[in-house]
Amino acid sequence: MTDIRDVMVTDPVTVSSQVPVETAAEMMREHDVGCLPVVDDGVLTGILTDRDIVVRCLANGRYPSATPTGDVCSRDVHTVGPDDTTKTAAQVMRRHALRRLPVVETPNPTGGRAQLKGMVSIGDLALSEDPESPLADISESPPNSP
Amino acid sequence: MSPDPVVVDGKASVERAAELMRTHNVGDVVVIEDGQVRGILTDRDIVVRAIAEKKRPPATLARECCTEDPKAISVDETTDHAIELMRQHALRRLLVVNGDQLVGVVSVGDLAISEDGRSALADISAARPNV
Predict the structure, then answer these.
(1) Would you call A31 an interface residue with chain B, using a CB distance cutoff of 8 Å?
(2) Is B121's CB within 8 Å of A143's CB?
(3) CA–CA min distance A105, chain B (Å)
(4) CA separation for the pair B76, B37 (Å, rounded)
(5) A122, B65, B81, B129: which sits with the fewest CB atoms below 10 Å from its CB?
(6) Where are the beta strands (DSSP E) in chain A?
(7) Are B42 and A21 an interchain contact pair (Cβ–Cβ within 8 Å)?
(8) pLDDT, tens only, A63-96
(9) pLDDT at B80 over 90
(10) ipTM confidence
């Protein structure tokens, strides 16, 4: 059984809730990720996906340069702890239809307000469970790369 | 595959495309011009190619941000062939056509379900993206 701490990314890119959505989008492009944990004073306060930006900012006619990340991110964050198993993470991902989970020191399934320790993705789990899976290498390809 | 793909005119703004993605609860739309497919536009394309470039969403066209000339696969082809095409070209989505008729879009997530029905990956990929 593999622990989350063995597969997680320990130094994930994060964004503050005060930062404009436009800047968060630049970070997503630069680091080639579709999801950023929102962290204020070291504490996880939300999660921002590329879909959140499109559906909650653009589709509502709001300007990305004038909208703080905190206004459009999801505040109800599901998390796991570093000592949880990859099986537990897979269950949380499946149950809540998520591809990435923040790893926090004191996991709280509903609140998630705790020190961020890392991020774990479906690709990290797929590789640790079955490195030969034909889907392991495409599941984490950048979306629709040109 | 997802049948009846949501389409948007190439000259529509990415703001309009975003509204369609919200209304239809999808992460991609097919961009059409003069009755022809020009490309596929995803929520990520909008973020990376419009917003991260500091373009104004109401004044940025779907045609400018979409991935052009998407690969197509016939509705009669196997899922194995679809996976092969995606791996070969590093794509997450393919158009599904019946002759010259667009009938759907197939994504990595759709294929994960049919190839690997019981895995966690399949369930997750099948689910809607974070709303």
Answers:
(1) no
(2) no
(3) 23
(4) 20
(5) B81
(6) 35-40, 43-49, 100-104, 116-121
(7) no
(8) 999 999 999 999 989 999 999 999 999 999 888 8
(9) no
(10) 0.80
